[in-house]
């Protein structure tokens, strides 16, 4: 175990995790997931929210097994390495609100940080503006961190609190297993299913679940985080996490070339739009919210799997944010930003700045 710990704590460990995620993302796309969306934490949580009926956008409804795998894989890893630490109580309402606006910003851009990298690896030039916005938002968050921003210390709590999110994911898995989609049917039992659009594109259930479990184990072990990569580079000039971030990009790009999935350009890219100001601004909002909450959406799921109740609250906020985004016309589509998406980004930035300025400890 000590050898494994030392490997994943080093640069080769984090790079290998980024490489595995990049290759698996390209393969999941090849096996049926949406184009340039082999893995997108925000998009998959949006689809999950749709499957549960929290929104009724018919083209994005599917209970994604990858999300379940992320949490359960992190749970397994944390127990294997004795790192399951139930904790909670660090400004939960602030984290919930940050989760809502992180999701809204991501759905204005149409992707989380993972998908921004994967879109670029698939040739989508619009991702350049999204990644620039992500870095800008994280940079603003780094400013707050340098000036005393702190949501407070989480406290050790009951083991049952740490188990709640994994148990929810086990419940979701049982729902999916006992309510399988019949061919061409938009609903099965209590779950909703897309019959067209991105929600109808998915790899086989077992393949998606195993991929999610593998990523959950590896990412928990290595502390993989796309937001943390940019934050650490800006704050401390540390490149450890960034090496994993770059490995994800390089290996996804190489896998896409091998699989014939690299199609460069700006127009006509899958599940993307060319309103570049709002590609940028949406990810400024998402990046700022991730920085203030302490992790990208993938990292929040992994922390929830290892017992962090505050990360679980952030995940719940993202699910509610997905419902708001599609019920209130905030989310973008290939045609462009939703009718109320611009206003939502402006409001979200104002709320995040309010949290950043007011939740600071002074000497």
From TrEMBL:
Highest taxon above the source species: Bacteria
Transmembrane parts of this sequence: 12-31, 62-81, 93-116, 128-145, 157-179, 199-219, 240-260, 280-299, 311-329, 341-359
Keyword Nucleus: no
Claim: Membrane is one of the keywords in the record: yes
Keywords, ordered alphabetically: Membrane, Transmembrane, Transmembrane helix
Pfam families linked: Sulf_transp
Matches recorded under InterPro entries: Seleno_YedE, Sulf_transp_TsuA/YedE
Protein name: Membrane protein
Species in which this protein is naturally found: Desulfofustis limnaeus
